[in-house]
Amino acid sequence: MKLCMIGTGYVGLVSGVCFSDVGNTVYCVDKDKNKINSLNKGIVPIYEPGLEEILKKNHKQKRLIFTTDLKKAVINSDIIFICVGTPTKKNSNSANLKYVFNVAHELKKIISKYKIIITKSTVPVTTGDQIEKILHNLKKKKLVDIVSNPEFLREGEAIRDFIYPDRVIVGTSSKKANRILRSLYLPIIKKTSRFYNTSRRGAELIKYASNAFLATKISFINEIANLCEKTDVDVKDISMGMGSDQRIGDRFLRAGPAYGGSCFPKDTRALIDTGKKFKTDLSIVKSVVNSNDKRRNLLTKKVEKILNGNLKNKIVTFLGVTFKPNTDDMREASSIPMIKYLNKKKCKIKYYDPSGEKNEFKKLKNVEYCKSISSACLKADLVILHTEWNDFKLLNFKNLIKKNNFKIYDMRNLYSPLKMKKLKINYFSIGR
Fold it and tell me: From CA 67, how far away is CA 422, in angstroms rounded?
């Protein structure tokens, strides 16, 4: 099939590359000329394991086309995916849908024969209805079917998640569109997953409800971790005992920093806003957002406590600053408010992250990006293990730091407290 992905951000690029890898011809469209030029040279703008290799292979085979020419891409495609950003509006919880609607208005000018238009972007329930209003004349002439097909890609695991999805959700009442999309996804769904056809509104809400529930699990175990620290209980034992219950499951039950990234923070807030619009009080989701906000402050105060309130001129090292491993995504990462707070308290901050230097910290004085773990840890008073990259799992801190009385704050419970005690290292962790 011939597909058009509008937007080459995380969702559009990963989906487009993977669709081309199963034999489709895919046009990836973006207004950013520099980005398109880079992609045509094989330069990938995001950090995602395995993506660059698949991109180069399919681009070479001319199944993957990067262009700024929306009209040409749409005319030559059977299915149009809207993959533009839906960020949170400034000073609001609601999703900013202007990019989605701008695309709809552009499509209205171009389409002259049957196309399936799919919202791949995460959008609030009834967004498809609003797109349909924009494309009313096209819909009336039966030139378009507007479908919701949410993505469930985890950053750092996106290629695997696309190839081996838990489920494929297609929201449409059109038998024609459903048949075509089932055929499109056949190379994927015949492996491990199930294909679900639901209403368009249902598909839109499934995405938000899923993310809100996962965010709830994270916030829940983080609060239990707080209790574990007061009662001398290991939160890992709690996670194991709970996760063994099939009704609960063991995923997203690892205590750590506040959740971050491009999805959970904005999607929980957007869901609250949707509830407000439909006069439904989503009190649990509100509590999750509130708990997560408190989490950032709590862990920052814990750092201050570990250093006995004496932060001035202390060397604090962050190992990993992204919100999770195997991605360069800094959106809503807990490291940002922590580093900014410690910086104001006159700490000297050093950090190392396998995904490279971060723009978020470039303008801060006394915040240094280090190109190696050893240079980051050298002479540190406190090492904060913030993101559990594989690079950090087997470290000899005594050789790295070479000073007495240094401290480690392991926010991912990566290390053994018993081992650290034997090494006579001042060790702090989460919920243990």
Answer: 58
